[in-house]
């Protein structure tokens, strides 16, 4: 049976591995536990220093096989050439790897790798029905070798894959579809991961979030939920359209908010005048406006100071020469009538009138 390391080594063209030699018959690899015709003593392998014991599949073996040495070296994977001028190019830990074997697991049928920017390809591997035994190692951190420890699965779609060093049992891919949907309509990976959606997200897509939580919220925290979220990628074209729509809606709201404001200053100006004319009742809320109108009348009237005049003729007399409107009026014009008729009104308005009078530079002298 081909180990994942041997699959990878075969996919790389069965290259010679430095420092390896024939091993005793029946020798098995400590990393992958498969038969190791060629390899190296563990004590002579520098890479062993970075291994921890629980990563050894067969800790009792003193050997490491040539394919495991190759799979844990920093050579560029198939199809990933090192960039010119760089000493150290792409290496196996930077990629996810996937392979399908023949029915009896003795031959490599297919191998592929993908970077983190090629998640749709990884999702495609996992969703597909595999015709033979298969394995998959998904690299997120991109720093540790994974291939030797990828579990071998039976043909089909179900199985266990590595996500970095975590083994994940594949579940219902409808979860990934649901994640893609909520990410597209407005949630983020960070909030889907925790379930702590923001108020903006609730505003944007509450029904979608409720539906997602009702069906999938219970899986939150599971390895499958984590891998599903890692794989899920929003529909960027749909997101672009949504954001354009949201921007247009925001601008429409701003515009709508601006229009009433433009009207606002004119409304209070016209309304009180009309209201005062329509409802002159001093008992109404327009008493002040009514007062102003009355005040205007009294100011224009030589008897504007009429309330004070009878009480204190002295100041009134002193004011006589300073009255600008006085000369325009006939001294005797309706004086008696106006004083008698609305006397109560005039007196009632005398106080506020005198308060404002100083602005007119006349009755301020009363103060
Ligand atoms: Zn091995």
What brief labels describe this structure?
14 helices; three-stranded antiparallel beta sheet; alpha+beta; 10% strand; disordered C terminus; elongated; 3 domains; five-stranded mixed beta sheet; 367 residues; 42% helix
Distance between the termini: 113 Å
Low-confidence parts: 269-367
Q: How many independent structural domains?
A: 3
Number of strands: 8
How many H/I helices? 14
Tell me the structural class: alpha+beta
Rough outline: elongated
Q: C-alpha Rg, in Å?
A: 45 Å
Q: What is the string of SSEs from the N terminus onward?
A: HEEEHEEHEEEHHHHHHHHHHH
The ligands bound in this entry are: zinc ion
Estimated helix fraction: 40-55%
Strand content: 5-15%
How would you write the strand order of the largest sheet? 5-4-6-7-8
**Average pLDDT rating:** 78
Largest sheet: 5 strands, mixed
């Amino acid at each position: 049976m081909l180990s994942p390391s041997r699959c990878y080594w075969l996919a790389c063209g069965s290259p010679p591995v430095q420092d390896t030699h024939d091993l005793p018959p029946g020798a098995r690899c400590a990393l992958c536990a498969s038969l190791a015709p060629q390899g190296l003593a563990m004590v002579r392998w520098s890479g062993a220093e970075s291994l921890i014991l629980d990563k050894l599949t067969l800790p009792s073996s003193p050997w490491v096989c040539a394919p495991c040495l190759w799979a844990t070296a920093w050579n560029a994977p198939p199809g990933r050439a090192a960039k010119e001028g760089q000493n150290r190019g792409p290496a196996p830990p930077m990629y996810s790897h996937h392979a399908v074997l023949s029915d009896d697991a003795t031959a490599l049928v297919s191998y592929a790798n993908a970077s983190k920017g090629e998640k749709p390809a990884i999702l495609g591997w996992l969703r597909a029905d595999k015709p033979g035994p298969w394995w998959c190692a998904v690299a997120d951190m991109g720093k540790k070798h994974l291939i030797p420890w990828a579990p071998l699965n039976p043909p089909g779609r179900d199985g266990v894959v590595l996500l970095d060093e975590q083994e994940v049992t594949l579940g219902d891919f409808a979860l990934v579809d649901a994640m893609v949907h909520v990410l597209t309509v407005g949630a983020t990976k960070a909030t889907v991961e925790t379930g702590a959606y923001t108020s903006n997200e609730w505003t944007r897509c509450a029904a979608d979030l409720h539906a997602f939580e009702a069906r999938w919220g219970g899986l939150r925290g599971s390895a499958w939920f984590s891998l599903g979220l890692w794989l899920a990628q929003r529909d960027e074209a749909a997101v672009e359209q949504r954001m354009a729509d949201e921007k247009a809606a925001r601008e429409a709201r701003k515009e709508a908010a601006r229009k009433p404001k433009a009207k606002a200053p004119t409304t209070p100006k016209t309304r009180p005048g009309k209201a005062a004319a329509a409802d002159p009742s001093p008992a109404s809320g327009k008493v002040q406006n009514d007062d102003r109108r009355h005040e205007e009348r009294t100011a224009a009237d030589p008897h504007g100071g009429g309330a004070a005049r009878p009480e204190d003729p002295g100041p009134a007399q002193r004011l006589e020469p300073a009255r600008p409107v006085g000369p325009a009026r006939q001294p005797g014009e309706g004086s008696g009538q106006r004083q008698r008729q609305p006397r109560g009104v005039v007196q009632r308005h005398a106080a506020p009138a005198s308060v404002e009078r100083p602005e007119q530079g006349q009755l301020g002298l009363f103060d």
